[in-house]
Amino acid sequence: MMAAKWKFLIASIVAYQFFLTWCLxxxxxxxxxxxxxxxxxxxxxxxxxFILTNQGGYDTAMRVVIFGGVLTFTNVAFWIVASIRxxx
Length: 88
Description:
Layout: H1 4-35, H2 41-44, H3 49-53, H4 55-87
């Protein structure tokens, strides 16, 4: 079993990556709003509504998700391998 400190470290990496992804989504949503402000209430009533109505914003958001997932997977895999090597 992994030590509690490793579990905490992995959880903090995932939480930090989630926070960064959320912030980047907010920035992309703002950029999509500036590109298309006439969307109106439909966009304002939904989380990241402007991304959903702007193809460029949607493409950027998906790149952020993919890159964030790869980064999180790499970090978690690194810490798991490091904890296994430490036990040997």
